[in-house]
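# step 3/5: fold
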Amino acid sequence: AVAIISLAGGAVAENATAAAFTGIIHDHDHGHSRDFVRRVGTSLETSKGPYRFVGMNYWYGPNLGSRGPGGDRDRLRSELDELSSRGVKNLRVMAGSEGPNDQPYRIVPAMQTAPGVYDPEVLEGLDFLLDEMRSRGMKAVMCLTNEWAWSGGLAQYLVWAGYAKKIPYHPPGRNTWNEFMHFTSHAFGHERTVQLYHDHVRFIVGRTNSVNGVRYTEDPTIMSWELANEPRGMNFFDDFLRWVKDTSALIKAMDPNHLVTIGLEGDTIDPKYNGINFERLNEPETIDYTTIHIWAENWNWYDPYKPVATYPKAKQKALDYFQDHARRSGKIGKPMVLEEFGLARDSNTNADRYLPSTGVTWRDHFFDNMLAWCCLLGRDPNSAVVGANLWAYGGDSWEGVNSMWTPGGLWKPGDIFTGDPPHEAQGWYSIYSTDNTTLDLIEQYGECVAAA
Protein backbone atom coordinates (compact mmCIF):
# COMPACT_ATOMS: atom_id res chain seq x y z
CA ALA A 1 0.00 0.00 0.00
CA VAL A 2 1.14 3.54 -0.72
CA ALA A 3 1.58 5.79 2.30
CA ILE A 4 -0.46 8.97 2.40
CA ILE A 5 0.07 12.48 3.72
CA SER A 6 -2.93 14.37 5.03
CA LEU A 7 -3.09 18.15 4.98
CA ALA A 8 -3.03 18.29 8.77
CA GLY A 9 -0.08 15.93 9.09
CA GLY A 10 1.61 17.57 6.13
CA ALA A 11 1.92 20.87 7.97
CA VAL A 12 3.85 19.18 10.79
CA ALA A 13 6.04 17.37 8.28
CA GLU A 14 6.72 20.60 6.41
CA ASN A 15 7.86 22.37 9.60
CA ALA A 16 10.08 19.46 10.58
CA THR A 17 11.63 19.38 7.13
CA ALA A 18 12.26 23.11 7.19
CA ALA A 19 13.99 22.89 10.55
CA ALA A 20 16.16 20.00 9.42
CA PHE A 21 17.41 21.95 6.42
CA THR A 22 17.96 25.37 8.01
CA GLY A 23 21.59 25.42 6.93
CA ILE A 24 20.74 24.63 3.34
CA ILE A 25 18.12 27.33 3.23
CA HIS A 26 20.63 29.81 4.68
CA ASP A 27 23.18 28.92 2.01
CA HIS A 28 20.52 29.16 -0.65
CA ASP A 29 19.73 32.72 0.37
CA HIS A 30 23.07 34.06 -0.87
CA GLY A 31 24.19 35.08 -4.33
CA HIS A 32 22.57 34.72 -7.73
CA SER A 33 20.55 31.64 -6.73
CA ARG A 34 17.97 34.04 -5.19
CA ASP A 35 17.26 35.44 -8.65
CA PHE A 36 13.48 35.43 -9.02
CA VAL A 37 11.83 36.32 -12.30
CA ARG A 38 9.84 39.54 -11.98
CA ARG A 39 7.54 41.55 -14.19
CA VAL A 40 8.68 44.98 -15.34
CA GLY A 41 6.05 46.51 -17.61
CA THR A 42 5.59 44.16 -20.54
CA SER A 43 8.93 42.44 -19.87
CA LEU A 44 10.16 39.71 -17.56
CA GLU A 45 13.49 40.29 -15.86
CA THR A 46 15.98 38.84 -13.43
CA SER A 47 18.94 40.63 -11.88
CA LYS A 48 20.90 39.68 -15.00
CA GLY A 49 18.53 41.56 -17.31
CA PRO A 50 15.60 40.62 -19.54
CA TYR A 51 14.34 37.05 -19.14
CA ARG A 52 13.22 35.48 -22.43
CA PHE A 53 13.06 31.81 -23.28
CA VAL A 54 12.15 28.95 -25.54
CA GLY A 55 10.96 26.22 -23.20
CA MET A 56 9.05 22.97 -23.19
CA ASN A 57 5.94 21.42 -21.71
CA TYR A 58 7.04 18.59 -19.43
CA TRP A 59 3.83 17.86 -17.56
CA TYR A 60 4.80 14.34 -16.36
CA GLY A 61 8.07 15.47 -14.73
CA PRO A 62 6.85 15.05 -11.12
CA ASN A 63 5.72 11.48 -11.79
CA LEU A 64 8.99 10.66 -13.53
CA GLY A 65 10.84 12.00 -10.50
CA SER A 66 8.96 9.69 -8.14
CA ARG A 67 10.48 6.61 -6.52
CA GLY A 68 7.10 4.90 -6.97
CA PRO A 69 5.10 3.59 -9.96
CA GLY A 70 5.89 5.49 -13.14
CA GLY A 71 9.07 6.95 -11.73
CA ASP A 72 12.40 6.78 -13.56
CA ARG A 73 14.99 9.16 -12.17
CA ASP A 74 17.69 8.07 -14.57
CA ARG A 75 15.42 8.94 -17.48
CA LEU A 76 14.51 12.25 -15.84
CA ARG A 77 18.15 13.24 -15.44
CA SER A 78 18.92 12.19 -19.02
CA GLU A 79 16.03 14.24 -20.40
CA LEU A 80 16.88 17.30 -18.34
CA ASP A 81 20.49 17.04 -19.52
CA GLU A 82 19.36 16.86 -23.15
CA LEU A 83 17.01 19.81 -22.80
CA SER A 84 19.57 21.87 -20.92
CA SER A 85 22.23 21.15 -23.54
CA ARG A 86 19.82 22.50 -26.16
CA GLY A 87 19.31 25.73 -24.23
CA VAL A 88 15.85 24.78 -22.93
CA LYS A 89 15.75 26.34 -19.47
CA ASN A 90 12.01 26.70 -18.84
CA LEU A 91 9.65 23.78 -18.20
CA ARG A 92 5.90 23.80 -17.60
CA VAL A 93 4.94 21.01 -15.21
CA MET A 94 1.85 19.76 -13.38
CA ALA A 95 1.98 20.77 -9.71
CA GLY A 96 -1.35 19.09 -9.11
CA SER A 97 -3.08 15.93 -10.26
CA GLU A 98 -6.21 14.50 -8.73
CA GLY A 99 -7.30 10.92 -8.13
CA PRO A 100 -8.66 8.45 -7.36
CA ASN A 101 -6.26 6.24 -9.24
CA ASP A 102 -8.96 3.88 -10.57
CA GLN A 103 -10.53 6.55 -12.78
CA PRO A 104 -9.95 6.44 -16.56
CA TYR A 105 -8.00 8.67 -18.95
CA ARG A 106 -5.78 10.31 -16.35
CA ILE A 107 -2.30 10.46 -14.82
CA VAL A 108 -1.73 7.58 -12.41
CA PRO A 109 -0.64 7.70 -9.67
CA ALA A 110 -2.22 11.03 -8.80
CA MET A 111 -0.53 13.55 -6.56
CA GLN A 112 -3.73 14.07 -4.53
CA THR A 113 -5.75 10.86 -4.22
CA ALA A 114 -8.60 12.32 -2.13
CA PRO A 115 -9.29 15.79 -0.71
CA GLY A 116 -6.22 16.74 1.33
CA VAL A 117 -4.68 13.27 0.97
CA TYR A 118 -1.40 13.20 -0.95
CA ASP A 119 0.84 10.49 -2.35
CA PRO A 120 4.23 11.22 -0.74
CA GLU A 121 6.14 9.57 -3.60
CA VAL A 122 4.60 11.88 -6.20
CA LEU A 123 5.17 14.89 -3.95
CA GLU A 124 8.79 13.89 -3.54
CA GLY A 125 8.92 13.43 -7.30
CA LEU A 126 7.99 17.09 -7.71
CA ASP A 127 10.64 18.03 -5.14
CA PHE A 128 13.24 15.94 -6.93
CA LEU A 129 12.34 17.46 -10.29
CA LEU A 130 12.70 21.00 -8.94
CA ASP A 131 16.03 20.16 -7.32
CA GLU A 132 17.38 18.66 -10.55
CA MET A 133 16.14 21.69 -12.48
CA ARG A 134 17.78 23.99 -9.94
CA SER A 135 21.17 22.34 -10.47
CA ARG A 136 20.83 23.03 -14.22
CA GLY A 137 19.68 26.64 -13.90
CA MET A 138 16.19 25.88 -15.13
CA LYS A 139 12.89 27.59 -14.26
CA ALA A 140 9.49 25.92 -13.68
CA VAL A 141 5.95 27.00 -14.46
CA MET A 142 3.86 25.23 -11.80
CA CYS A 143 0.38 24.40 -13.11
CA LEU A 144 -1.92 23.80 -10.15
CA THR A 145 -4.87 21.99 -11.78
CA ASN A 146 -6.58 21.35 -15.11
CA GLU A 147 -9.71 22.15 -17.09
CA TRP A 148 -9.47 18.68 -18.61
CA ALA A 149 -9.87 15.29 -16.96
CA TRP A 150 -6.47 13.86 -17.94
CA SER A 151 -5.10 14.90 -14.55
CA GLY A 152 -8.38 14.78 -12.64
CA GLY A 153 -8.67 18.52 -12.59
CA LEU A 154 -11.57 20.81 -11.77
CA ALA A 155 -14.09 18.11 -12.65
CA GLN A 156 -12.68 15.89 -9.92
CA TYR A 157 -12.92 18.72 -7.40
CA LEU A 158 -16.62 19.05 -8.27
CA VAL A 159 -17.15 15.37 -7.48
CA TRP A 160 -15.13 15.61 -4.27
CA ALA A 161 -17.19 18.64 -3.23
CA GLY A 162 -20.46 16.77 -3.69
CA TYR A 163 -21.68 18.76 -6.69
CA ALA A 164 -21.97 15.57 -8.74
CA LYS A 165 -21.52 11.84 -8.22
CA LYS A 166 -19.47 11.26 -11.36
CA ILE A 167 -17.62 13.06 -14.13
CA PRO A 168 -19.20 13.25 -17.61
CA TYR A 169 -15.94 12.37 -19.33
CA HIS A 170 -15.05 14.15 -22.54
CA PRO A 171 -13.74 12.06 -25.49
CA PRO A 172 -12.57 9.34 -25.47
CA GLY A 173 -15.28 9.12 -22.80
CA ARG A 174 -18.96 8.96 -23.63
CA ASN A 175 -19.78 12.66 -23.32
CA THR A 176 -19.07 15.49 -25.73
CA TRP A 177 -16.46 18.17 -25.18
CA ASN A 178 -19.23 20.76 -24.77
CA GLU A 179 -21.07 18.70 -22.15
CA PHE A 180 -17.85 18.29 -20.20
CA MET A 181 -16.89 21.97 -20.41
CA HIS A 182 -20.29 23.12 -19.21
CA PHE A 183 -20.05 20.67 -16.30
CA THR A 184 -16.56 21.80 -15.32
CA SER A 185 -17.45 25.50 -15.47
CA HIS A 186 -19.52 25.05 -12.30
CA ALA A 187 -16.23 24.67 -10.40
CA PHE A 188 -15.66 28.43 -10.39
CA GLY A 189 -18.81 29.30 -8.44
CA HIS A 190 -19.41 26.19 -6.32
CA GLU A 191 -18.24 27.23 -2.87
CA ARG A 192 -17.06 23.85 -1.58
CA THR A 193 -15.25 23.10 -4.84
CA VAL A 194 -13.39 26.39 -4.63
CA GLN A 195 -12.49 25.66 -1.01
CA LEU A 196 -11.00 22.27 -1.87
CA TYR A 197 -9.01 23.71 -4.75
CA HIS A 198 -7.73 26.54 -2.55
CA ASP A 199 -6.69 23.97 0.05
CA HIS A 200 -4.47 22.41 -2.60
CA VAL A 201 -3.10 25.82 -3.57
CA ARG A 202 -2.18 26.52 0.05
CA PHE A 203 -0.60 23.09 0.45
CA ILE A 204 1.60 23.25 -2.64
CA VAL A 205 2.55 26.93 -2.49
CA GLY A 206 3.36 26.53 1.21
CA ARG A 207 5.40 23.37 0.72
CA THR A 208 9.05 22.87 1.67
CA ASN A 209 11.12 20.78 -0.72
CA SER A 210 11.91 17.45 0.96
CA VAL A 211 15.06 16.99 -1.13
CA ASN A 212 16.89 20.27 -0.51
CA GLY A 213 14.90 21.92 2.29
CA VAL A 214 14.06 25.05 0.30
CA ARG A 215 10.61 26.48 0.78
CA TYR A 216 8.76 26.74 -2.50
CA THR A 217 8.04 30.39 -1.76
CA GLU A 218 11.79 30.98 -1.51
CA ASP A 219 12.86 28.91 -4.51
CA PRO A 220 13.83 30.90 -7.63
CA THR A 221 13.71 27.65 -9.63
CA ILE A 222 9.97 28.34 -9.72
CA MET A 223 9.20 31.06 -12.24
CA SER A 224 5.45 31.18 -11.75
CA TRP A 225 2.28 29.67 -10.39
CA GLU A 226 -0.40 28.86 -12.94
CA LEU A 227 -4.01 28.64 -11.76
CA ALA A 228 -5.05 25.90 -14.19
CA ASN A 229 -4.43 24.47 -17.63
CA GLU A 230 -6.86 26.03 -20.14
CA PRO A 231 -9.74 27.04 -17.83
CA ARG A 232 -12.93 28.18 -19.56
CA GLY A 233 -15.79 30.08 -17.91
CA MET A 234 -18.54 29.05 -20.36
CA ASN A 235 -21.84 30.51 -19.03
CA PHE A 236 -20.28 31.54 -15.72
CA PHE A 237 -17.84 34.26 -16.69
CA ASP A 238 -18.45 36.34 -13.56
CA ASP A 239 -17.72 33.33 -11.35
CA PHE A 240 -14.64 32.58 -13.44
CA LEU A 241 -13.32 36.14 -13.10
CA ARG A 242 -13.92 36.11 -9.34
CA TRP A 243 -12.10 32.75 -9.11
CA VAL A 244 -9.13 34.21 -11.00
CA LYS A 245 -9.01 37.27 -8.73
CA ASP A 246 -9.46 35.34 -5.49
CA THR A 247 -6.98 32.57 -6.32
CA SER A 248 -4.28 34.89 -7.62
CA ALA A 249 -4.69 37.12 -4.56
CA LEU A 250 -4.38 34.07 -2.30
CA ILE A 251 -1.13 33.04 -3.97
CA LYS A 252 0.31 36.55 -3.89
CA ALA A 253 -0.49 36.83 -0.19
CA MET A 254 1.40 33.60 0.48
CA ASP A 255 4.19 34.13 -2.01
CA PRO A 256 5.09 37.63 -3.21
CA ASN A 257 8.32 36.32 -4.76
CA HIS A 258 6.78 34.52 -7.72
CA LEU A 259 4.80 35.42 -10.79
CA VAL A 260 1.19 34.30 -11.26
CA THR A 261 -0.61 33.53 -14.52
CA ILE A 262 -3.98 31.99 -15.35
CA GLY A 263 -3.12 29.37 -17.99
CA LEU A 264 -5.54 30.61 -20.65
CA GLU A 265 -5.51 29.56 -24.30
CA GLY A 266 -6.36 33.10 -25.33
CA ASP A 267 -9.62 33.66 -27.17
CA THR A 268 -9.89 30.04 -28.40
CA ILE A 269 -11.86 29.71 -31.64
CA ASP A 270 -15.06 30.98 -29.96
CA PRO A 271 -14.37 33.23 -26.94
CA LYS A 272 -18.01 34.13 -26.33
CA TYR A 273 -19.16 30.51 -26.19
CA ASN A 274 -16.17 29.46 -24.08
CA GLY A 275 -16.62 32.28 -21.58
CA ILE A 276 -13.30 34.00 -22.29
CA ASN A 277 -12.59 37.73 -22.12
CA PHE A 278 -8.84 37.89 -22.54
CA GLU A 279 -8.39 41.45 -21.34
CA ARG A 280 -10.72 41.37 -18.31
CA LEU A 281 -9.33 38.08 -17.04
CA ASN A 282 -5.72 39.21 -17.32
CA GLU A 283 -6.14 42.79 -16.09
CA PRO A 284 -5.99 42.14 -12.30
CA GLU A 285 -2.73 43.31 -10.80
CA THR A 286 -2.29 39.87 -9.25
CA ILE A 287 -1.91 38.38 -12.75
CA ASP A 288 1.61 39.01 -14.01
CA TYR A 289 1.58 37.75 -17.58
CA THR A 290 -0.76 36.37 -20.20
CA THR A 291 -0.61 33.06 -22.02
CA ILE A 292 -1.96 31.73 -25.29
CA HIS A 293 -2.16 28.25 -26.81
CA ILE A 294 -2.37 27.48 -30.53
CA TRP A 295 -3.73 24.15 -31.80
CA ALA A 296 -3.87 24.18 -35.59
CA GLU A 297 -5.12 20.60 -36.03
CA ASN A 298 -7.43 20.51 -33.00
CA TRP A 299 -9.07 23.76 -34.12
CA ASN A 300 -9.56 22.38 -37.66
CA TRP A 301 -7.19 24.86 -39.28
CA TYR A 302 -4.83 22.13 -40.47
CA ASP A 303 -5.36 18.70 -41.98
CA PRO A 304 -2.20 16.61 -41.42
CA TYR A 305 -3.23 14.31 -44.26
CA LYS A 306 -3.39 17.28 -46.66
CA PRO A 307 -0.52 19.48 -45.51
CA VAL A 308 0.26 21.08 -48.88
CA ALA A 309 -3.31 22.28 -49.24
CA THR A 310 -4.02 23.28 -45.64
CA TYR A 311 -0.74 24.38 -44.04
CA PRO A 312 -0.45 27.85 -45.64
CA LYS A 313 -3.85 28.92 -44.32
CA ALA A 314 -3.20 27.29 -40.93
CA LYS A 315 0.12 29.12 -40.65
CA GLN A 316 -1.53 32.45 -41.38
CA LYS A 317 -4.29 31.82 -38.85
CA ALA A 318 -1.72 30.87 -36.21
CA LEU A 319 0.39 33.98 -36.86
CA ASP A 320 -2.70 36.21 -36.82
CA TYR A 321 -3.80 34.70 -33.49
CA PHE A 322 -0.31 35.12 -32.07
CA GLN A 323 0.14 38.72 -33.19
CA ASP A 324 -3.37 39.78 -32.19
CA HIS A 325 -2.94 38.49 -28.64
CA ALA A 326 0.56 39.97 -28.38
CA ARG A 327 -0.85 43.38 -29.30
CA ARG A 328 -3.73 43.09 -26.83
CA SER A 329 -1.47 41.82 -24.05
CA GLY A 330 0.78 44.83 -24.55
CA LYS A 331 -2.21 47.12 -24.44
CA ILE A 332 -3.08 45.97 -20.91
CA GLY A 333 0.58 46.19 -19.90
CA LYS A 334 1.32 42.47 -19.49
CA PRO A 335 4.03 40.22 -21.01
CA MET A 336 2.81 37.28 -23.10
CA VAL A 337 4.01 33.66 -23.41
CA LEU A 338 3.04 31.31 -26.27
CA GLU A 339 2.60 28.50 -23.80
CA GLU A 340 1.42 25.56 -25.92
CA PHE A 341 1.76 24.82 -29.62
CA GLY A 342 2.42 21.62 -31.48
CA LEU A 343 1.84 19.75 -34.71
CA ALA A 344 1.51 16.10 -35.64
CA ARG A 345 4.25 14.09 -37.26
CA ASP A 346 4.06 13.77 -41.06
CA SER A 347 0.76 12.09 -41.87
CA ASN A 348 0.76 12.34 -45.66
CA THR A 349 3.08 9.37 -46.08
CA ASN A 350 2.64 5.64 -45.72
CA ALA A 351 4.30 5.75 -42.30
CA ASP A 352 2.31 5.53 -39.06
CA ARG A 353 1.88 9.14 -37.90
CA TYR A 354 2.26 8.05 -34.27
CA LEU A 355 5.60 6.26 -34.61
CA PRO A 356 8.70 8.06 -33.32
CA SER A 357 10.48 7.12 -36.55
CA THR A 358 7.99 9.03 -38.73
CA GLY A 359 9.21 12.34 -40.15
CA VAL A 360 8.55 15.81 -38.78
CA THR A 361 8.92 18.00 -41.87
CA TRP A 362 5.65 19.89 -41.38
CA ARG A 363 6.08 20.14 -37.63
CA ASP A 364 9.50 21.70 -38.15
CA HIS A 365 7.98 24.18 -40.62
CA PHE A 366 5.43 25.17 -38.00
CA PHE A 367 7.95 25.54 -35.20
CA ASP A 368 10.25 27.49 -37.49
CA ASN A 369 7.45 29.90 -38.40
CA MET A 370 6.20 30.43 -34.85
CA LEU A 371 9.60 30.68 -33.17
CA ALA A 372 10.81 33.12 -35.83
CA TRP A 373 8.01 35.44 -34.75
CA CYS A 374 8.89 34.91 -31.08
CA CYS A 375 12.42 35.97 -31.90
CA LEU A 376 11.36 38.90 -34.09
CA LEU A 377 8.87 40.30 -31.59
CA GLY A 378 11.22 39.55 -28.71
CA ARG A 379 13.63 42.06 -30.27
CA ASP A 380 10.92 44.72 -30.44
CA PRO A 381 10.96 46.82 -27.25
CA ASN A 382 7.28 47.60 -27.82
CA SER A 383 6.26 43.94 -27.99
CA ALA A 384 4.85 41.94 -25.08
CA VAL A 385 6.23 38.58 -26.30
CA VAL A 386 8.73 37.08 -23.85
CA GLY A 387 8.79 33.34 -24.50
CA ALA A 388 7.36 30.09 -25.76
CA ASN A 389 6.86 26.55 -24.46
CA LEU A 390 6.52 23.85 -27.11
CA TRP A 391 4.17 20.88 -26.67
CA ALA A 392 5.47 18.50 -25.52
CA TYR A 393 8.67 16.71 -24.60
CA GLY A 394 8.51 12.91 -24.83
CA GLY A 395 12.23 12.59 -24.31
CA ASP A 396 13.53 9.03 -24.25
CA SER A 397 10.10 7.38 -24.37
CA TRP A 398 10.80 6.43 -28.01
CA GLU A 399 12.86 3.55 -26.57
CA GLY A 400 9.69 1.90 -25.24
CA VAL A 401 7.58 2.15 -28.39
CA ASN A 402 5.32 -0.91 -28.93
CA SER A 403 6.63 -2.56 -25.76
CA MET A 404 5.93 0.06 -23.07
CA TRP A 405 3.35 2.22 -24.89
CA THR A 406 1.20 1.83 -28.00
CA PRO A 407 1.50 4.34 -30.87
CA GLY A 408 -1.94 5.81 -31.50
CA GLY A 409 -3.39 4.06 -28.44
CA LEU A 410 -4.39 5.52 -25.10
CA TRP A 411 -2.01 5.59 -22.17
CA LYS A 412 -2.76 3.05 -19.44
CA PRO A 413 -1.28 2.45 -15.99
CA GLY A 414 2.00 0.63 -16.38
CA ASP A 415 2.90 2.39 -19.64
CA ILE A 416 5.78 4.83 -19.61
CA PHE A 417 4.95 8.50 -20.09
CA THR A 418 5.24 10.16 -23.48
CA GLY A 419 4.58 13.83 -24.15
CA ASP A 420 0.94 13.02 -24.90
CA PRO A 421 -1.54 13.03 -21.99
CA PRO A 422 -3.36 9.77 -21.15
CA HIS A 423 -6.59 10.66 -22.98
CA GLU A 424 -4.89 11.40 -26.31
CA ALA A 425 -3.33 9.19 -28.95
CA GLN A 426 0.17 8.37 -27.78
CA GLY A 427 2.79 9.74 -30.16
CA TRP A 428 0.55 12.49 -31.55
CA TYR A 429 2.54 15.53 -30.47
CA SER A 430 5.52 14.07 -28.58
CA ILE A 431 8.96 15.54 -29.28
CA TYR A 432 11.62 12.90 -28.65
CA SER A 433 15.29 13.13 -27.81
CA THR A 434 15.94 11.64 -31.28
CA ASP A 435 14.07 14.42 -33.14
CA ASN A 436 17.31 16.18 -33.94
CA THR A 437 16.00 18.55 -36.60
CA THR A 438 13.35 19.81 -34.19
CA LEU A 439 15.79 20.11 -31.30
CA ASP A 440 18.24 21.95 -33.57
CA LEU A 441 15.51 24.49 -34.34
CA ILE A 442 14.68 24.89 -30.67
CA GLU A 443 18.33 25.45 -29.84
CA GLN A 444 18.75 27.96 -32.65
CA TYR A 445 15.71 29.99 -31.68
CA GLY A 446 16.43 29.69 -27.98
CA GLU A 447 19.65 31.57 -28.59
CA CYS A 448 17.82 34.10 -30.74
CA VAL A 449 15.01 34.75 -28.24
CA ALA A 450 17.34 34.90 -25.23
CA ALA A 451 19.61 37.38 -27.02
CA ALA A 452 16.76 39.59 -28.19
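# step 4/5: annotate
The longest helix spans residues 307-331.
# step 5/5: archive (pending)
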